[in-house]
Structure formats: structure tokens, C-alpha cells
Amino acid sequence: MSDHRSMPVPDGLEGDRLDTAIARLFGLSRTRAAELIAEGNVLVDGAPAAKSDRVNAGAWLDITLPPPPNPPAPRPEPVPGMRIVYEDADIVVVDKPAGVVAHPTIGWSGPTVVDGLLAAGVAVATSGAAERQGIVHRLDANTTGLMVVAKSEIAYSSLKRAFKERTVEKVYHALVQGHPDPLRGTIDAPIDRHPSGDGRFAVVAGGRPSVTHYTTLEAFRAASLLEIDLETGRTHQIRVHMSAIRHPCVGDTLYGADPTLAERLGVHRQWLHAIRLAFTHPTQYRRVEFTSSYPEDLAKSLEILRAES
User: Fold this and answer.
1) Res. 26: pLDDT tops 90
2) Where is the active site (predicted)?
3) Most buried one in 52, 116, 247, 270, CB count within 10 A?
């Protein structure tokens, strides 16, 4: 069912383009807002308008939001390179390769962790939306490393709470451009969707609180290997925070990395690896810890840097 909304333009949006105003009001990308306007689903004071028209505070908006499309259902499909590190009746811990997302999602036709587990005969918890069953946290498609998935309902609710309460230890290694100063520090800066609506995230006033702790492990001529401890778990958090302090992850062209350096090191994605995951087991109540070694592309780039430095 479509969703019809009527409201006046708030004072804070006075003078904004119509597509920007709609995007901000409804948390949409600007592209999606422009599509709604082009489809005739937006009226300003009862009349159709163009996406570039400027809005006046108090003008009346009528918007029809079509129902969101349903994400694809999970399907058993083996994921090459995905390794099950640990499994018991309640949890399964996987080492995720690059090019794999956590669960099926609109616009993604590649492999997913949920599909790979189904193919391996692992039954996951059925809590949550059908397409993301058992998923209690996520890694970006091109971030490698450790992910825990809930198999039982008790594990699902317990792990969801643990991630929310920040009792899960999530440690990453990142190769970033240049040398952060100081060599160890904390980045405490709120994150939200980038105003451009192009899928990026950014440090935005009024965004969700986000805290990243980093320590330099090794410094090379053009880059530094960092250990990163995440206090919060926002989408793209490490990538956004490192870019915000002008030290983007090597290979992360979405967030301003130098493509020449990445090419020289043979890195075709962001250099970011979830190396350690520790939490209290949801039914055994003991602390469990898992570690993962670097995948081949990341290890090779470090060899090149060490040989040069």
C-alpha cells in the first residue's frame, strides 16, 4: 500500500531545492526524491513542481510514497572463500571474503553470508526480517574478516543486546594513507548519510554518535597500519572517520583514497579487515574470542610497503 503524507514546509528548509527538501524530510536519497517528483508523486500547494524549484516555508506539500520493494529472499548459494571458523548450537562465526554482503538486499545480486550459510546447511535464527535472519551485525561488502551469526533465538536477542550495549569487542586492522598525528587517538564525531544522497556516509552535525579508537602498529613511507577498536558500529564508520581526519583507508576511492597508491599496492578495495571479535557466549556465559589472518591481497600489499620502507 502506498503512503500519503501532507505537511507544510518547515522553516528550516526555506529556500532549499524541492528534491533536497523531500530527501531531508523523509530520509531518502536525493535521487529517490527526484524520482518521486518526476513520477508526479509530489504536489506543492496542490500543483506539480520541478525538482529544482525552491520551496518556501509554509508551502503545503502532498507526497505519495509508493510501498518499498521487498528485498530478495535468501537462497542457498555457496560462497567461495567464506570459512566457518566456529559453530555450535547457538552461534556460527564466519570469516567473510571480499565481495560478499551480510544478507540479501535490494540492488545486490552478488553472494551473501546468509545464502552461504544456508548452502552449508547451517540453520540460522528466524528472528528479524526474513532476508536478514540471524544477522546481528554487518561488514561492508568489501571489508573482510569475522562476523558472528545467531543460530538460536536466545542467541539472536542476546547478541543484538550485546552489540547495542557495546559489550562486544570489535577490532579491525586498517591500512591508511599517511601518518595519523597523534599516533594513537580517538575520533568522536557523529555520522549520518552524506547530504548528497549518493550512498556515502559522512560526519554530520546531529548525526548518530560514533566513536573510533585507533593505534598505529606500523608506519611506512606513504601509509600506516592501524589497529582500530570500534565503540559504536555505524555503517562505514571506520572509512568515514579515517577520511574525516584526512587518512582514508588505502583503496577506498569512495572516501577519497589515492587510486595510484592502491594500484601500486595491488589493492582493489578498502584495506580494512575485521581481525578480532570477542563477546560473552549467549548460553555458555563464557567470554569467547576469535581471530582472523589477513587475506592474500592485504598481506601482499604490506610486503610491498615493508620492502620499500
Assistant:
1) no
2) 140
3) 270
